[in-house]
Specification:
The complex is a heterodimer of chains A (380) and B (381).
Chain A: H1 7-34, H2 39-47, H3 66-79, H4 81-101, H5 104-110, H6 112-115, E1 121-124, E2 140-144, E3 147-158, E4 165-171, E5 181-187, E6 193-195, E7 209-220, E8 224-225, H7 231-267, E9 269-270, E10 273-274, H8 279-307, H9 313-338, H10 349-358, H11 366-378
Parallel strand pairs in A: 1-4
Antiparallel strand pairs in A: 2-3, 3-7, 4-5, 5-8, 6-7, 9-10
Helix pairs in contact in A: 1-3, 3-4, 3-7, 3-8, 4-7, 7-8, 7-9, 7-10, 8-9, 9-10, 9-11
Chain B: H1 7-34, H2 39-47, H3 66-79, H4 81-100, H5 103-115, E1 121-124, E2 140-144, E3 147-158, E4 165-171, E5 181-187, E6 193-198, E7 209-220, E8 224-225, H6 231-267, E9 269-270, E10 273-274, H7 279-307, H8 313-338, H9 349-356, H10 366-378
Parallel strand pairs in B: 1-4
Antiparallel strand pairs in B: 2-3, 3-7, 4-5, 5-8, 6-7, 9-10
Helix pairs in contact in B: 1-3, 3-4, 3-6, 3-7, 4-5, 4-6, 6-7, 6-8, 6-9, 7-8, 8-9, 8-10
Chain lengths: 380, 381
């Protein structure tokens, strides 16, 4: 039992907190309003080693642990949740599976520049008719000599509009259902890779997402990640880590909303006194802070288990479920504390509320998390 | 960073788990029905060091620390919340004497508290008209030479009838507010101390809850705990630790509910399959498991801070609030999952449902926890 942060973890926290305060927070409202990808901020994240936090230095990363990654994700998301998910996708959903399942050659070519943040990755699992039920996917990959040819489409692909390479899941043997899925590293400049127009989203509008189409898209066979049929396993194992990132993002969003609500409650007066002196407001703040702390402990526990190399599917799912649902409650209370001002764009809490909503959906809906948790709890 | 217990902590946890399963669980339902204090379990708990987990070894305690204590209470509560609360109060009394008592007081009271020679320790703070607002207490202590005379009434005193020693808070300067409160160690059987009504409780029935009447109860100044006027501060300090104990107890209750549901949902069939295979049931179980993990981590964090000598006021209040509120949801869902059977004494979940209800009330209601948390949050930094 040791939950003190190490010196390195504290440094990461302080560095990210300062960056979020100086570079993200002042711009987040504009990026949200204009649906703008924060290219310069992402470049700065790369300089700080935050696009490959837990990737070893020999593969271009910062070589820190997963607890540090969770801490960084929380702090960055306090400043801008959209920037948070850009970082999370590159770290958790692209670099992490490359590190775990990639060959030496793949890592040299397709991990190093991404972990350094020189190039951007994305993760393409979801399809128009296949979200939670990934085994229903229709995208196919057919082997033709030394190539695979992909046909189909993927949607809601975060980083899709900007990514240089997509980790794409496709059926290589439909009869085997989820055991017939394989994973491929598809350069987005490949022939037959076509991007749809960016999605118009409720929140996390600084991050772009889009539908991508594969029309006879041919890639070299050496771009297959893992063996044929390993795709589902790779996807699920990747999401176990990804969920820690999204849980930390939800945590950061909630903390931003809480801190703004606390500051507002101390300034705003009603009935002759600051509203923070009323129990009605105090108790909301107390509940918000309590749930934020609980979420952080769940996130850190899952991350520390990942660091120790033990299975953490249920713990990641718990962290993601709790943190995301907490985030929606907390951001909603922050609006309530702000009253009418909470409903207008003069304050940031309306954005936090919109941003929080996605965390209950992507990288496994709350319902999928409950399936993962209950099957683990009910296992003999 | 690791959330795994150390070897010593794990040993204490294992010891408590074994005792809870082998000795407490088999008699819990009967003690609950009869409203019987488990006098025959106390000696065994003492022998295993579970009555003074965080009291120094020099005074008969285990000296195993606050984290080990929390792990032990979780195990005991998973078997029986009533026994767990009795043990928790004894531990709190022991820790308070160890922290604030004179060496003579420590030597006199800690060994019998730790061994079980005293069936329990008791904490005499609440009064009929002073619960959350402890400073409104009316019990008086008046000095006569090197003696003190106590007059007044205490209520909701866990183990007040069986305790070998009771920490009693009384006003020594009624005009000085919280600075006019002093603590005293009153032994069982002291003339002028009478045990009043036994409360008929809906839950935690195997714990004893009584009122205590002090009528010209005379004790020596050597029985004063800490300095005159320091009592209120000591009570708050004791309750901070106590809250972690209740958080641990609530966590144990959630785990007991979860375990019962896991078993039942796999056996019970409806619509051609075990009810565990219906999402309506499985998702309730998932939420209980998530709440359990959150409650457990919050209790452990507060204990780890306490053990490290760091401030933990806010964290203890948060742990108590979150765990006790989560326990309400968990035990109610456990009854729901058991259907009609859950409403009968045939299954343990109805006991849990009644037992857990006390957890958002005692050692500071949820409302007091929120006040404590808000005060910490709104303090200018």
């Amino acid at each position: 039992m040791d939950i003190q942060l190490t010196e390195e973890q504290r440094q990461v926290r302080d560095l990210c907190r300062e960056f979020a305060e100086k570079e993200l927070k002042p711009n987040a409202r504009r990026w949200d309003a204009d649906h703008v990808f924060p290219r310069e901020a992402v470049r700065q994240l790369a300089e700080m080693g935050l696009m490959g936090v837990a990737i070893p230095p020999e593969w271009g990363g910062a070589g820190m642990d997963n607890v540090s990654y969770a801490i960084a994700m929380e702090e960055i998301s306090v400043g801008c949740a959209g920037t948070g998910v850009i970082m999370s996708v590159n770290n958790s959903l692209y670099c992490d599976p490359l590190l775990k399942f990639g060959t030496e050659g793949q890592k040299k070519e397709l991990l190093v520049p991404f972990a350094k943040g020189e190039r951007l990755g994305c993760f393409a699992l979801t399809e128009p008719m296949s979200g939670s039920d990934a085994a229903e996917m229709r995208t196919v990959a057919a082997r033709r000599g030394e190539e695979y040819v992909l046909d189909g489409s993927k949607n809601f692909i975060t980083n899709g509009p900007q990514a240089d390479v997509a980790l794409v899941f496709a059926m290589t043997d439909k009869a085997k259902k989820h055991k017939g899925i394989s994973a491929f590293l598809v350069p987005t400049d490949a022939n037959g890779f076509i991007r749809g127009k960016p999605d118009e989203k409720v929140g996390i509008r600084a991050s772009g997402s889009c539908t991508v189409f594969f029309e006879g898209c041919a890639i070299p066979a050496r771009h297959r990640l893992g063996e044929e049929g390993d795709g589902f396993k790779i996807a699920m194992s990747t999401l176990d880590g990804g969920r820690i990132g999204i849980a930390a993002q939800a945590l950061g969003i909630a903390r931003a909303a809480f801190e703004e609500a606390r500051a507002y409650a101390k300034e705003r007066k009603a009935f002759g006194q600051p509203i923070s002196s009323f129990q009605a407001i105090q108790f909301m703040l107390a509940d918000m802070a309590t749930e934020i702390d609980a979420a952080r402990l769940l996130v850190w526990r899952a991350a520390s288990m990942k660091d120790q190399g033990v299975r953490h599917s249920a713990e990641s799912a718990m962290a993601k479920l709790y943190a995301s649902e907490m985030s929606e409650r907390v951001t909603s209370k922050a609006i309530q504390i702000h009253g009418g001002y909470g409903y207008v764009k003069e304050y940031d809490v309306e954005r936090h509320w919109r941003d929080s909503r996605i965390t209950e959906i992507y990288e496994g809906t709350s319902e999928i998390q409950r399936l993962v948790i209950s099957s683990s709890v009910l296992k003999d | 960073m690791t959330f795994e217990p150390s070897e010593l902590q794990r040993a204490v946890q294992e010891t408590a788990r074994r005792f809870a399963r082998e000795k407490i669980a088999p008699v819990a339902a009967e003690n609950d029905r009869a409203g019987r204090f488990p006098l025959d379990l106390v000696r065994g708990l003492g022998e295993l060091g579970l009555l003074a987990v965080n009291v120094p070894e020099a005074y008969g305690g285990s000296g195993a620390g606050a984290v080990a204590y929390v792990l032990a209470i979780m195990e005991l509560a998973a078997a029986d919340c009533a026994t767990a609360v009795t043990v928790a109060v004894t531990n709190m009394v022991g820790e308070t004497i160890a922290r604030f008592g004179s060496d003579a007081q420590r030597r006199r009271y800690l060994p019998p508290l730790a061994s079980g020679d005293f069936p329990a320790g008791a904490f005499g703070l609440s009064e009929p008209q002073a619960g959350s607002d402890a400073a409104a207490m009316r019990t008086r202590a008046v000095r006569r030479g090197d003696r003190w005379i106590l007059d007044g009434e205490k209520q909701w005193i866990t183990s007040g009838d069986v305790a070998g020693v009771i920490i009693v808070w009384a006003k020594t300067d009624p005009d000085a507010g919280t600075r006019g409160v002093t603590a005293f160690l009153v032994e069982r059987g002291t003339p002028g101390l009478a045990v009043g009504r036994h409360e008929e409780k809906m839950g935690i029935r195997a714990s004893s809850t009584v009122s205590l009447a002090f009528d010209g109860c005379e004790i020596s100044d050597a029985q004063r705990l800490g300095e005159v006027g320091e009592g209120f501060r000591m009570a708050l300090a004791a309750l901070e630790g106590g809250r972690i104990g209740i958080a641990a107890q609530a966590t144990g209750a959630i785990r007991a509910a979860l375990d019962a549901c896991r078993r039942y949902a796999k056996e019970r069939r409806a619509f051609g399959r075990p009810i565990a295979e219906h999402q309506a049931i499985a998702f309730m179980i998932a939420d209980m498991a998530t709440d359990h993990e959150a409650a457990r981590l919050m209790a452990l964090r507060a204990a780890a801070l306490k053990e490290a000598g760091a401030p933990f006021t806010r964290e203890a209040a948060m742990a108590k609030l979150l765990a006790s509120e989560a326990a309400q949801r968990a035990v109610s869902r456990a009854v729901q999952i058991h259907g009609g059977y859950g409403y009968t004494s045939e299954f343990p979940v109805e006991t849990l449902f009644r037992d857990a209800r006390a957890q958002t009330i005692y050692e500071g209601t949820s409302e007091i926890q929120r006040l404590v948390i808000a005060r910490e949050l709104l303090r200018d930094r």
